[in-house]
Amino acid sequence: MVVSKMNKDAQMRAAINQKLIETGERERLKELLRAKLIECGWKDQLKAHCKEVIKEKGLEHVTVDDLVAEITPKGRALVPDSVKKELLQRIRTFLAQHASL
Amino acid sequence: MKMEEMSLSGLDNSKLEAIAQEIYADLVEDSCLGFCFEVHRAVKCGYFFLDDTDPDSMKDFEIVDQPGLDIFGQVFNQWKSKECVCPNCSRSIAASRFAPHLEKCLGMGRNSSRIANRRIANSNSMNKSESDQEDNDDINDNDWSYGSEKKDWELKVTLPFILLSYTAKKRKSDKLWYLPFQNPNSPRRSKSLKHKNGFSVCTSASNTLPLLFSSSGELSNSDPFKYNNSTGISYETLGPEELRSLLTTLIFLFQQCGVISEHTKKMCTRSLRCPQHTDEQRRAVRIYFLGPSAVLPEVESSLDNDSFDMTDSQALISRLQWDGSSDLSPSDSGSSKTSENQGWGLGTNSSESRKTKKKKSHLSLVGTASGLGSNKKKKPKPPAPPTPSIYDDIN
């Protein structure tokens, strides 16, 4: 029972992701988020943080994994509420449109 | 597909919300990942720290926000008070007006520029202390020398100006013609030019030389020199070189084709019957230089005194010889040409003048009349001679 439910959830998620990509909504959302983040200074804040990290580790020894580990939590936290809300709203509308099918 | 629909429709709101959050987190992580790749690439390529500046230089290039200064901290209305000195007339002109002034002053515009130039020269000569004489001379030399190497436009402007006085005497009105010749400080202006016949013509040392002559035909013509004087009036006020080049051009037009080539901008030196140019072209050139009354020389001899006749031209030739013999360098082609004809010119001089006496179209100059009395003396002409005195002196 539990396994079948998990299986069903996974299937559902996969189906939704498929739909997101097929309709191109994912690309649109990504582009919107990027624009919003640049607009609100998220990128500049992260860049400043990056500089600290890089200076700490040394220019030659920085790897992508290091950067991702350091930056991603910070990046998630720094997203402004307004941007988050707008994006969630768009995702919900998308889901509502396609859940009714 | 059917299952999918079922599953989607069967979800409750909390599940949908969870999925939405998941998608959002996914997207943010994507962005972060993209950013990390970007930074990493910049670091490895070495352009990540390019836009870094130290705080000192940041302070140096801070934007200035003060009244009266621009963002760089410079005073921005400085230019308003700036004045430029004109290299031509050495007046100081506001910077904003300098370009239009220079255009006029240097003669790039229309003919008005030359008038302006003349006016400036006149005013300068009125109070000589203003500018040094060398400058003035240079300006005036440019104005009044038309050697063969000079450009066409100089000839175009100056020649008709002088010839105006010449052709004007053809009209039978009693008008007085003022020709405000300027060449203020030129030393040759103060020279007393000696005529071949022992008659000295007085040229004025004054700076503005108003030429006054009348075209009345009722003047007494007993004096054989009078005609010479009358034809020579406008030329005697010119310097010897100027006179020579002018008259050389005139003679040229009576002896040679003279049509100005479109390519070389030079006058044709072939004979009047030159096959390369038509009579029409020759006529156009003569009208261009001598005014509408001028016609081709070969036709002229048969025409009456309304045209530019041969006696006049010969009188001119004689004047040229007088001039050429004065103090000119023989190397010049114009003077050498005149010296060839000198004997003939002298011989015909008096006879020609006698002929023209009968035509009753003469000019006379005030200055020359007074010059008759005071022979060989430098005597400045009155700047504006009273009209009645002309007739008194002459009669």
TrEMBL record, chain B:
Its main location: nucleus. Residues 132-141 have a biased composition (Acidic residues). Keywords: Activator, Chromatin regulator, Metal-binding, Nucleus, Transcription, Transcription regulation, Zinc, Zinc-finger. Residues 117-128 have a biased composition (Polar residues). GO terms for cellular component: DUBm complex; SAGA complex. Residues 323-336 have a biased composition (Low complexity). One of its GO terms (molecular function) is zinc ion binding. Residues 244-311 form the SCA7 domain. It is found in: Nucleus. Residues 117-143, 323-395 are annotated as: Disordered. GO terms for biological process: chromatin organization; regulation of transcription by RNA polymerase II. A zinc finger (SGF11-type) spans 84-105. InterPro entries: SAGA_su_Sgf11, SCA7_dom, SGF11. Pfam families: SCA7 (PF08313), Sgf11 (PF08209). The keyword Cytoplasm does not apply. Component of the transcription regulatory histone acetylation (HAT) complex SAGA, a multiprotein complex that activates transcription by remodeling chromatin and mediating histone acetylation and deubiquitination. Within the SAGA complex, participates in a subcomplex that specifically deubiquitinates both histones H2A and H2B. The SAGA complex is recruited to specific gene promoters by activators such as MYC, where it is required for transcription. Required for nuclear receptor-mediated transactivation. Within the complex, it is required to recruit USP22 and ENY2 into the SAGA complex. The long N-terminal helix forms part of the 'assembly lobe' of the SAGA deubiquitination module. The C-terminal SGF11-type zinc-finger domain together with the C-terminal catalytic domain of USP22 forms the 'catalytic lobe' of the SAGA deubiquitination module. PANTHER family: ATAXIN-7-LIKE PROTEIN 3. Component of some SAGA transcription coactivator-HAT complexes, at least composed of ATXN7, ATXN7L3, ENY2, GCN5L2, SUPT3H, TAF10, TRRAP and USP22. Within the SAGA complex, ENY2, ATXN7, ATXN7L3, and USP22 form an additional subcomplex of SAGA called the DUB module (deubiquitination module). Interacts directly with ENY2 and USP22. Belongs to the SGF11 family. This is Ataxin-7-like protein 3. It comes from Hipposideros armiger.
